[in-house]
Specification:
Elements (H helix, E strand, L loop, with lengths): L3 E5 L2 E9 L2 E6 L5 H11 L4 E6 L6 E3 L4 E4 L2 E4 L4 E7 L3 E7 L4 E7 L1 H5 L2 H13 L7 E4 L12 H11 L4 E3 L15 H4 L5 E7 L1
């Protein structure tokens, strides 16, 4: 399993620590978000959040300071920032360039996937930070699988990445719809709750 389950009190979330200078987190429906964020802040309480007002767009925001931004992708090379987006069945895509120490977090549902937001995120890393696609690492969050939805957002986003030369792609193949004990799913029950995808340089 790519994502490690972490428990604290009555709360559970997922962490990915497979990259040297970047750490990814993904909340679940078990427990409290306050526990989830307390764990993140314990490592560095001085860090601030940069997050998105999402609209299923293809807009990528390059950020250097904490604030709310309008878009569906967020990029930084500032190690003092923590990036955050929210998803229910949509895919959160974590991108990391270890050579240039830059991270990107993208919200890709079926609309964002059709608008090729992952492709735009890769191009942004390449043009803004000089990232080489062969060096970029990608991790998929849990999201709805092709058996439960008529758009295969996993394969479509993998295809976008590979066409640009990105081959380091990790897909845990964890379905939000099929795991009601762990994840919220808008398609399953039209819920208003969301999982939080969080990404930081460390």
């Amino acid at each position: 399993m790519l994502w490690k389950k972490v428990k604290n009190n009555t709360s559970l979330w997922l962490e990915w620590n497979g990259w040297k200078d970047a750490r990814a987190y993904f909340s679940t429906r078990i427990g409290k978000l306050t526990d989830f964020y307390s764990n993140i802040h314990q490592r560095n309480s001085e860090k601030k959040f940069a997050y998105l007002r999402q609209s299923h767009s293809d807009k990528i925001c390059i950020v250097s300071s904490p604030a709310e931004y309008e878009g569906d992708g967020i990029v930084t090379n500032n190690p003092e920032l923590i990036l955050r987006i929210k998803v229910a069945d949509c895919l959160a895509i974590y991108m990391y360039d270890p050579s240039n120490k830059v991270i990107c977090l993208v919200h890709a549902g079926w609309r964002g996937t059709e608008k090729r937001i992952l492709e735009k995120g890769i191009i942004c890393l390449k043009e803004t930070y000089g990232s080489s696609p062969s060096e970029i690492c990608i991790l998929f969050s849990p999201s709805i699988c092709p058996h439960c939805f008529d758009v295969d957002i996993w394969s479509e986003n993998e295809k976008q990445a590979r066409l640009l030369g990105v081959n380091k792609i990790l897909n845990p193949r964890m379905c939000t719809y099929e795991n009601p004990e762990l994840f919220y799913s808008y398609r399953r029950n039209q819920c208003e709750d969301r999982m939080h995808a969080v990404f930081e340089l460390c």
